[in-house]
Amino acid sequence: MRNFDAAMPNAYVIGLGKSGIAAARLLKREGWQVTVSDSGSSDSLRQQQQQLAANNIPVHLKEVFDPHRAELLQAESLQRIVVSPGVPWDLPGLVRARDLGIETIGEAELAWQHLKDCPWVGITGTNGKTTTTALIAAIFQAAGLHAPAFGNIGYAACEVALEAKKPDWAIAELSSYQIESSPSIVPRIGVWTTFTPDHLSRHKTLERYCEIKSHLLKQSRQQVFNGDDPFLQNLGNQQLAPVHPDACWTSVNGKTTLVGNPSQGLYIEDAWVRTPTELIMPANLLRMPGAHNQQNLLMAIATAKLAGIDKNAIAHAIATFPGVPHRLEHIRTWQGIDFINDSKATNYDAAEVGLSAVKHPAILIAGGEAKEGDDNAWIATIQANAAAVLLIGNAAPAFAQRLQQVGYANAEIVKTMERAVTRSTELAKQYQVPVVLLSPACASFDQYQNFEQRGDHFRELCQELQ
After folding, report:
1. Distance, CA of 273 to CA of 291 (rounded, Å)
2. In sequence order, which residues have a C-beta less than 8 Å from that of residue 321 and are 6 or more positions away?
3. 1: confidence class by pLDDT, cuts 50, 70, 90
4. Is the peptide bond before 197 cis (omega within 30 degrees of 0)?
5. Average pLDDT, integer, range 9-30
6. For residues 157 and 153, what is the distance between their CA atoms, to the nearest angstrom?
7. Sequence-distant (≥ 6) Cβ neighbours of residue 464 within 8 angstroms
8. In this structure, which long-range contacts are made by residues 394-402, counting pairs with CB atoms below 8 Å and at least 24 apart in sequence?
């Protein structure tokens, strides 16, 4: 039984990790009696349990939020539930709690309640949002602003809310999970990077996934859209919601391809990032490879321009930008072979972009926990750009069969990352290729806690090569 204190407001946080810990600490600081639960029981969760226990916050592991437990769902005892991003919003217990009138919000919404007095940039999209977020934060910081990146990148949102110094700008990468449970967030500037099918196992339909993304942009006072994304381009050309008439559109293909009013757009032409009236910087100042990163660059610069940031600060930030861990991250060159970590490519579209961006032919390491989606473009890119494919994780047999169906003969099931890295060195020498690329096209949860842990493991194995 949970012993809720009737004299204090009671809150229940579902899910540990950095989001759950930060939410629990913020609630505790605000005078709430806080209880935390998590369905897992790993060693790292036990360590987190001990950390919160030191702050007099009880944590119950191996516990699934149960709608039928009267002591949890009596409205007079429990006033607020805060949900970590990885917890499904349609969990029966959460649906039941909302029906009973218990305030149920996401961790990002809790942070918004404490940070809404400062302007937010809200970045969402299927792919590209992490690099775009990191670029935006780098530019704002180069301009002398306290502008932490948080949410689906860097800090948990509530970690920023816990800081004594409030941000000048809040740079929030927001996944569909976070938007769904945080409907009140109103960004000063909203950025939509791309839209392709993803997370359908959670959101069920493409329409629902789109509706969630659209909500953030509808709420935004100013908007930046990737005008080279076919889905978003169609929204703009047909002037469909959530597009505002004065939205800023970007294109890597020049002024003539801009959606909307060209005077409000940003584009690349003659190797320069520019508007119709201003040259901003050479496009090649960004050292990250791939046309998709040129598009990410444009969206970041468009956001900075809307925020009134000087182009000298923009150029300095871009010229010194080191790249994003786990997104086409160059690990090392070993015996003339570049090892590149693209662990953040957790779906087919991102993996296709990654394989297209590197020198080829390449040795590709792919696999993990497969997602729903159209794999045709990814498969075609493998046929064109991959000398061999090494398959790991649960998806390996299905991927091997799929490649066999299209007549691709150089796929091997190696199961683990250790075997993949070892075998990749042999094949890279055999085929005399310049690159070994980890770009999984899958989630990581079959073998790792998250894509970061997967990428870190790849990095360690590459650095150990003698």
Report:
1. 13
2. 134, 135, 138, 286, 287, 288
3. very low
4. no
5. 94
6. 9
7. none
8. 394/367, 394/368, 394/369, 394/370, 394/446, 395/366, 395/367, 395/368, 395/369, 395/370, 395/442, 395/446, 396/367, 398/370, 399/366, 399/367, 399/370, 402/375
